[in-house]
Amino acid sequence: MPGQVALPILSTAFGGASASDFSNSAFITDLNQGAAGALAGALVYPNGNANYICNLVGSSLSPCATNYGYTTPGSYPLNFFQANPYLDSYSGGAPASYMTAQGYGTYHALQVDFRQKQWHGMQFDVNYTWSHTLGIQPDNAWEGNVQVFSIRNLRQSYGPTTFDLRNVVHASGTYDLPFGHGKALLNRTGAIDKIVGGWTLGTIFTRDSGFPFQLLGGYNTFNDYGDGGLVLNGVTRSQLQNAVGTFNAPGAFKYVINPALRGSPTSLCSSLLTNVCQNTTAGTFGSNPWLTGPGSWNDDMSLSKVIPIRERFRFSLQAEFLNVFNHPNFGSPNNVLSSPLFGQSTQTLADSLAGGNKQPSA
Fold it and tell me: What sign results for the dihedral spanned by CA atoms 235, 286, 134, 137?
């Protein structure tokens, strides 16, 4: 095209057109995979052994002059790769963080609740919540970090939040067992009432539709921190969602994505998911679809007894059974397509006493 000129970036960075770095397998892999961000990231840091950035900018970057003996500016501008390289870790300190107040989120919900007051020894509360929460927000990360694809367009990071549970059912209640004095069964006083009377059974049950997770390719095609995304070949996000479930896997954990869809990786498509490959077009982002993990449920139960001692005193005995059915709930899977553990959940969800507030636990 008119105005285009050759930029021998690699020849300059490597120190000549015949440099051995042209046969470096890591650089060749980056080029074949379109990982322009990863390749650029390997060139921008002076490390004493392969000072690629110093060959490009020369003494314009002060560490190249003071630490590595470069005395003249290079043929490329200081900010060729980074807008301000001095905000990075060239001085030996920690990189500067980008702080912004542009995060935001939305939450929409429909809630239905049914309560039954004490009736024939029984009381309960059942509620249902449909909700959808989206945004660019740190969720439960106290340090405020979010996954950013590009600071030039934070909207690319907009999506379901960690707590985007579409459907949640809670049910809790107690039931006074019908045994003992004044009850329908074994209506006796004395020792029999002391043994079988005054027992109450309680339960807290929770069922939800699953937590969201995002598929990542693992290639840096745009920059050195944002995932380059995926290319879906003859498969849709809905079909991928239909493959989500709980399937047997080697060891103690489970596959969350149907292992029947696991494919064989190649040099250009190191994906373990059939018909889904990493985006390999340099300078672009592919698709990063969100899926919803398998639903989870938990039931906690209690058994308590009240023993009157005197008119003003009574003794209470209570036993609690957390996750009474010993049912494991598996967390979101490894979501990087090139990982050997892709699609496998290596964590369970720890349930609070109330059956909500689920957090991953190793």
Answer: positive
